[in-house]
Every structure is written in structure tokens, then in C-alpha cells.
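Much of what follows relies on a compact textual record of a protein's fold. The record below shows the convention in full:
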Amino acid sequence: MMTDAEIEARLSGLGLVLPEPAAPVAAYVPVVVAGGLAHVSGQLPFVDGKLVTGRLGEDVSLEQGTAAAQACGLMILAQLKAALGSLSRIERIVKLGAFVNSTADFTEQPKVANGASELMAAVFDDAGRHARSAVGVPVLPLGAAVEVDAIAAVRTD
């Protein structure tokens, strides 16, 4: 298992910092832990405190979309840390679900989702490799470009 210091060092080495966990925008909780799994509600992309909005294939580039997915991944980690008290309790990232606000002819949702997937692998090594869904949708809450949810296996001790 990795320590919090090791996880923070990896994030720092990537030039990344965990944001403050975002408050829910509707009637749900950010994380539910049950049966050794932490289910993280869909997280939106905030870069420098500002929500990344727009549509892939229209006014958001693949690179911007990938960076937005990475920002969602950072918010997932921030929510997990807030809920668990420590990221060192994460045994494995089990699954990510990526929703990409995209035009009907945009087909690179998996490349966009790699922003979050590659972050998890960079932070947790093999324990960060996960199953995944990446789908295109016509609109997301608040006009967000990307939304990512997660399931993580956690130590319960």
C-alpha cells in the first residue's frame, strides 16, 4: 500500500495538486462507502477554480477534453481523500465512467477519458489500472465538457 506522502509526491511530480472537494450540486452525496467499495458520484472538471464547459467536436479540442478528464480525476481523488481521511486506504481503482459532452460525429471519447485513466495509473501504478466506460452525451450538468465517476476498492480497517 502507498502512503499519503508517496501519493502526494507522485501528484507533485506530475505538477498537480488536489483541489478542494466540490460540494454536490443536487440531492446526492459525493462518496458512498459500502462493502469495501467507495462509489464516487460524477465529478466535473475544474481548472484553476473554473468549470471547463463546452462540447468536444464543437468548441473544445481533444487536448482540452483530455485535460478536463484529468481534472475530473483529481476531483475524484479529492473526494476520496475527504471521505476516507486518507488516500492510502485505496487498494485499487476498480472502474471509471467517463461522460463526454460531444457532437454526434465526435468519436474519440476513449482518448478524452484517458486523461482520468492515465492519472490513476500514474498515481497508483497497477492498482490504478481499471475497467472503464467512455460515452458521448449531448449535454452535461452546468454545461461541463466532461464528467467522470469512479468505484474504488478500499481498506476498511
